[in-house]
Design brief:
Blueprint (H helix, E strand, L loop, with lengths): L3 H18 L9 E6 L7 H13 L5 E5 L11 E5 L7 H4 L1 H9 L4 E4 L3 H12 L3 E5 L11 E7 L27 E5 L6 H12 L6 E3 L1 E9 L5 E2 L8 E7 L3 H10 L3 E8 L7 H10 L5 E5 H4 L12 E9 L4 H13 L3
Parallel strand pairs: 1-5, 1-6, 2-4, 2-5, 6-7, 7-8, 11-12, 11-13, 13-14
Antiparallel strand pairs: 3-4, 9-10, 9-14
Length: 339
């Protein structure tokens, strides 16, 4: 028997999809979408940055277009970065767009609920030639040349239910629209889990499947901007603070790299930190040598808030392992068709 709440969500989803699929706009440059079908937690941010960096290697101007979730300018839209200068803080731009702008200084970053308008601004105002659409799988009115969908290697469809019973934003059948699938956090899955996930996917999609991990690369000293090796975490007593879909994974990563967590504070994804709560946490973190956070959280904090502790952030990157070359070829083939 269908749950009434889930049935209502499905009806609203179908209505919205039908409405926005009636008129699909092609903005005239290649658009590569990075998205998912579950509510957060698949690691889109490192994938968006990996794809943007790869596309920049072609010598063409790249823009990341995002909704700007949580930013005050999301509704009206804004150019967060033109590839040379960052114009807004996280409170205006949203945490992920600001992180993109900081991590990819040569790429433009444009936000807006209306992604068609945002894409056109990126082209007209920033002169971009390729667009990476952040979290665009459910934005039906903008034509995409490629839809890359991320799935958790262990629970690709969560519990199989749509919101609010599960975490599915769309039914699993929507994967038929995907151009490619990337299984994330494969290092946390067993061989049996990976095999089961591949079998589940085959029932809904014939798109190529790539396997990836999210691997820590380095540590950034937010006070000086210096990049430190991961070894800097070894035996370091840290106070861990984060606001992610999966905070526990951040904490486990710190431990795996030798850090000793003496205090921890976790909030829901996209939480905007306030000075008082950060300072209070630091004050209570007895024995800590450093305040450790994520890159996404660091852009929402100010360095003085962590005093007297230094503020460090963990730099995470997408690692495609043996599938990296094939994934690069997939991206090249998609964009070369538009030269």
């Amino acid at each position: 028997m269908t749950n009434p709440a889930e049935a209502i969500y499905r009806a609203l989803y179908e209505r919205r999809k039908a409405k926005f699929s009636r008129h699909v706009v092609n903005v005239g440059v290649p658009v590569i979408s990075i998205g998912n079908i579950t509510l957060g937690g698949t690691g889109k941010t490192p994938c968006v940055q990996f794809v943007a960096r790869e596309l920049q290697k072609s010598g063409r101007r790249v823009a990341i277009v995002s909704r700007g979730y949580g930013g005050a300018l999301s509704q009206q839209g804004a150019v967060v970065s033109d590839g040379e200068k960052i114009f807004f803080k996280a409170s205006k731009a949203g945490d992920e767009p600001l992180l993109h702008a900081r991590s990819l200084p040569d790429a433009a970053v444009v936000i807006g609920v209306d992604r068609v308008r945002a894409a056109r601004r990126a082209i007209d105002e920033c002169g971009v030639q390729i667009i990476v659409l952040d979290d665009g799988f459910q934005f039906y009115s903008l034509h995409r040349d490629s839809d890359i969908v991320l799935l958790d290697a262990r629970r690709p469809f969560d519990n199989g239910h749509l919101l609010p019973l599960g975490r599915l934003r769309e039914p699993a059948q929507s994967l038929k629209r995907a151009s490619a699938l990337v299984l994330t956090r494969c290092n946390l899955a067993t061989a049996d889990e990976l095999q089961t996930t591949h079998e589940k996917i085959k029932a809904f999609s014939s798109a190529p499947v790539f396997q990836a991990n999210h691997a820590p690369q380095s540590v950034r000293d937010e006070n000086s901007g210096a990049v430190l090796p991961l070894e800097a975490l070894k035996n370091k007593r840290v106070a861990a603070i984060s606001a992610l879909a999966h905070n526990q994974q951040f904490q486990e990563t710190l431990k795996q790299n030798g850090a000793q967590i003496v205090a921890q504070l976790a909030r829901r994804d996209h939480h905007f930190w306030r000075e008082k709560e950060v300072r209070d946490f630091v004050h209570q973190a007895h024995g800590a040598e450093v305040l450790m956070t994520t890159e996404k959280d660091a852009v929402k904090m100010r360095v003085p808030w962590s005093a007297p502790l230094p503020l460090w952030s963990l730099v995470i990157a997408l690692n495609l392992g043996d599938d990296e070359m094939a994934f690069r070829d997939f991206l090249k083939q998609t964009t070369d068709e538009h030269r």
